[in-house]
């Protein structure tokens, strides 16, 4: 079973930086992607960034592209999110999640080149880490 533990959240000033860490356990070949999501109370959870498990593809939400960078230490199976040029609208709880390709009723995978939902199904989540950006 996949376990994910996030850390690194905190308070930052606008324009500042934070680095989030997600330590995984059980991130096996059963999983095809891993990603960062965020949620503000009263709003839907949104994708921040994701990557295929081999690291060959990474994708970003439009609001963070160019400011955030996802990376993974594959040996340690630890996921990172470097967040630069933080803005007040980045304030949210950030979650790490493991994703799998969706399956047909026959059991075959539905092929996808990306890592975004809904092509990838994210059912395994960490407890989250709070990021607050304020002056």
Write the layout of secondary structure elements.
Layout: E1 3-7, E2 10-12, E3 18-25, E4 33-39, E5 46-52, E6 58-60, E7 68-73, E8 78-83, E9 92-101, E10 120-125, E11 129-133
Parallel strand pairs: 2-11
Antiparallel strand pairs: 1-3, 3-8, 4-5, 4-9, 5-6, 7-8, 9-10, 9-11
Polypeptide structure, described:
By secondary structure, the chain is mainly beta. 0% of the residues lie in helices and 49% in strands. Strands 2, 4, 5, 6, 9, 10 and 11 form a 7-stranded mixed sheet that branches. A 4-stranded antiparallel sheet has the order 1-3-8-7, with no helix packed on it. A hairpin with a 6-residue loop joins strand 4 (33-39) and strand 5 (46-52). The chain is globular, with a radius of gyration of 15 Å. The chain starts with a strand and ends with a strand. The model has no long low-confidence stretch (mean pLDDT 95).
What is this entry, summarized?
The chain has 135 residues and is mainly beta. It has no helices and eleven strands. It is globular, with a radius of gyration of 15 Å.
